[in-house]
Amino acid sequence: MRVLSAAVATLVLGNGLLYWSYGECLSAFFHFDDFWVLGRAAQIASDERASFLSIFAPVHGFLLYRPLSTIGYFLGIRLAFGNDPFWYHLVQMALQSVNASLVCVLAARLLRSPIVGLAAGLTYLTTPGLAIASCWPALCTVTAPTLFGLLALITWTSPSPVIRMTLTPWWFAGALASSEHGVVLPLVLFLATVLIPTAARGRAEIATLGLLCALSAAYASYKIYYLRFGVVSDFPDPIVRAVMLQGYTPEFSLAVFLRGIGTYVGYAFSPALFLVQQTAFTKTWVGVGLLVALATTVVAFLRTQKRKAHFGIAAFGGAWFVVSLLPVIFLPQHVASYYVAMGAPGISLWILGGASGLRVSRQIAAAMLLGISLVGHWQGRNVILESDEFQFFRNFTHAAERWIRSVAELQLHPHVTEVVVPDSYLAQLVFVQGEVTKSLLCSPIQVRVVRDIDHVPEQPGRVILREPFWYPRDPQARSRWLPRRCP
Q1: Residue 464: strand, helix, or coil
Q2: Is 239 a residue whose pLDDT tops 90?
Q3: In the 8-state DSSP scheme, what is residue 457?
Q4: Assuming Cys at both sites, which of 37, 186, 224, 299 could form a disulfide with 212, CB separation 3.0 to 4.6 Å?
């Protein structure tokens, strides 16, 4: 009951912390990848023959196959709340608090203290990498596998064998259907089994782990095969394909690995945010230092008897953080802050477990960790909000809203049947892939994207829109031009 109370407190306080930190995001419009997902969700919602299984149909091939966290997620919000972006941002932010409450439950169970769990959960929400993930609905691709991963760890460390064997495989399936980041979950469960002394190690657990690892290996193997042979058919445009391959082609080297560790530590722990802006040399040595610290923790676990459980939990936390980065650590051209979401809770377990192993009061260690994290978050919040990620977020959402609102204004004129706009990446995402006239505006008006707009002839019913009308950022005005729901 005390753990449940701590989890509820984490949920309530976490929502308040997120609102104070990133409340401005609730008034933002849709962003970037949101649009193609909105378009596909709208197609399913308007198709009377569609079923739940429709969300599992590939849209962009296997490279970005994340049906639960993309189509399923957006379709659910659309059916519940309609087209208003406020609800999409609110649900995304609330999911972060739910994950924090699960971190609380896991930490409270492993370290046997609800207060420690509360501190771990709130510390998780100060993770710098969660900032943009709290504001961008499409990043449910990292939020959802984190949710399923935490549920899997909670059930896997449950004293009930029925819960362990029954629920854990389903959580793994949910994580894998949400994103390729779920592929590391069996390895995380294996580490929990080996390093947490209270974890069950019976034949049933070993057999289940073996099955999950085999499925994970098969998934990873096919993903690698697809990158080599399947991308051409799903991305026929050579420019688009080159961009995709540049971001998702791994570079397997020790230097890339160490530099990646040093970078992601800054994104995972608010007092270390400054590391993100350091040189590659500094990040490399930070990576070396972190791995040395992890090795020291493992040695303490192996050689110590009296405090073995605490050092085991600490070693698991550090290993969890590193292992969770394996899907992205070798992608130096595709570094993003939000990739730390799944492994960031491990940092708290590492610190709190290690402090307990060194005979520091768990409650005192938890209070110090939370205090330092909150101070780091308070000082780094403005740095995060002024980062390139957030600047791009603000600029793109405002530009997209201006274009869509301009089309919405034009469709009010009965003689307008077609709007022609110049080609751009934004126009392709919004009007071609997102089909916003259907998915958001509920309108039969046609928007055509052309490369050479100066050679498009004038004709009755056609409006050539070279640039959007100017509108200030005014979320309150959306109710006047954005339909709440499509018929």
Answers
A1: strand
A2: no
A3: P
A4: 186
Interval 447-472: pLDDT, tens: 999 999 999 999 999 999 999 999 88
Q: Give the C-alpha distances (Å, rounded to integers) separating 456 from 445, 449, 463.
A: 18, 11, 10
Q: How far apart are CA 38 and CA 43, in angstroms?
A: 9
Question: If you average pLDDT over residues 223-229, what whole number do you get?
Answer: 87
Neighbours of 118 (CB within 10 A): 26
Note whether 338 and 31 are within 8 A (CB). no
- Cα–Cα distance between 320 and 306 in angstroms, integer? 23
Whether residue 449 contacts residue 455, with contact meaning beta carbons closer than 8 Å, is answered with: no
- Within 249-361, where are the H helices? 254-268, 280-303, 308-324, 345-357
pLDDT beyond 90 at 88: yes
> Is the per-residue pLDDT at 241 higher than 80?
no
Q: Provide the CA 481 distance to its chain's centre, in angstroms.
A: 30
Please determine, for residue 341, whether its predicted confidence score (pLDDT) is greater than 90: yes
Residue 147, number of CB atoms within 10 A of its CB: 23
Tokens of 104: 């609380």
Distance CA 171, CA 158 (A): 14
